[in-house]
């Protein structure tokens, strides 16, 4: 998950939405300052629709309302969706790192003649990779913005994905995976260079492999049944990979569930026990930070948002 999806998206237009919304708000507040209260202005700041309606009710001057689409999804041949040689090199490095870890796990298992523990460790790695994908996805969906250190581009990428979710299926393979592949290379390579424990190597190899390919699993979850390979369909139907229906629920209101994108095995438990909602409450009361999913309606997460602008006719 992670880094990825709309990693190279022209997200600036999207963020331009928010920025522009705030800019329009400023204009409106100046214009209406003699007739609106502080409470009304605050309300307008959090709701773009009210931005349109309330000044019209309170202003004695006629308003000209114009609707402008300020965001556009990338076309199929947009360069931001294409793989570069740099992307391919990082994916090759990530795959090599994972394969070396698994190969070393098998060779050490053969030398030590232990198989149960490494296999169990690999299975645990697969299960925890799904949980990790959900926690990470929840965090960057709800907190921070484009200016957040380290994770800013990924936060922007996931917000862009919520705006144009279908475009992930048009993104080329290496373009979609390169950021995670880079993270896996830097994280796993040092471990496998110094570690000879087959169980740890099995865990690291499977877990990092699932995390690196989680963006591909995610892309398949957005695919249509008729276009997906039969094996992928079978794995989705068996629950080995996150299913299309389960991930589709994540892209519907209230946008605060089904975050896991490897197998989706954790989604039911996490959502049933409201684990993320509890974490959100803890963070809110401890740090005063509100998650994006609490904002309703959240225009930043709606597909194909149109932002209306308004100007005074006089
Ligand atoms: Zn999301
Ligand atoms: Zn998605």
From TrEMBL:
One of its GO terms (cellular component) is membrane. Transmembrane segments: none annotated. Residues 126-294 form the Lipid desaturase domain. Keywords: Membrane, Transmembrane, Transmembrane helix. It is a multi-pass membrane protein. It is found in: Membrane. Belongs to the fatty acid desaturase CarF family. This is Lipid desaturase domain-containing protein.
């Amino acid at each position: 998950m992670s880094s990825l999806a709309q990693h190279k998206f022209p997200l600036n237009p999207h963020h331009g939405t928010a920025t522009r919304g705030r800019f329009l708000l400023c204009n409106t507040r100046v214009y209406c300052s003699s007739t609106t209260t502080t409470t009304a202005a605050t309300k307008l700041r959090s709701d773009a629709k009210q931005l349109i309606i309330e000044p019209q009710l309170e202003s004695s001057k006629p308003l000209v309302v114009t609707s402008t689409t300020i965001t556009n999804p990338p076309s199929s041949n947009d360069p931001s969706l294409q793989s570069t040689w740099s992307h391919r090199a990082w994916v090759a490095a990530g795959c090599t790192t994972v394969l070396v870890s698994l190969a070393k796990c098998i060779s050490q298992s053969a030398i030590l003649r232990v198989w149960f523990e490494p296999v169990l460790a690999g299975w645990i790695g697969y299960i925890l990779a799904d949980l990790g994908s959900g926690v990470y996805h929840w965090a960057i969906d709800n907190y921070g913005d484009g200016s957040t250190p380290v994770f800013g581009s990924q936060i922007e990428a996931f917000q862009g994905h919520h705006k144009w979710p279908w475009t992930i299926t048009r993104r080329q393979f290496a373009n979609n995976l390169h950021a995670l592949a880079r993270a896996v290379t830097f994280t796993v390579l040092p471990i496998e260079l110094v570690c000879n424990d087959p169980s740890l190597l099995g865990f690291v190899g499977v877990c990092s492999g699932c995390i690196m390919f989680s963006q591909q699993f995610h892309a398949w979850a957005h695919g249509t049944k008729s276009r997906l390979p039969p094996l992928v369909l079978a794995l989705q139907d068996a629950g080995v990979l996150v299913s299309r229906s389960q991930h589709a629920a994540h892209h519907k209101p209230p946008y605060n569930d089904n975050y896991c994108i490897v197998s989706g095995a954790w989604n039911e438990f996490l959502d049933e026990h409201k684990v993320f909602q509890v974490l959100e409450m803890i963070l809110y009361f401890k740090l005063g930070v509100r998650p994006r999913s609490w904002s309703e309606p959240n225009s930043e997460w709606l597909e194909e948002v149109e932002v209306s602008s308004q100007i005074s006719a006089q």
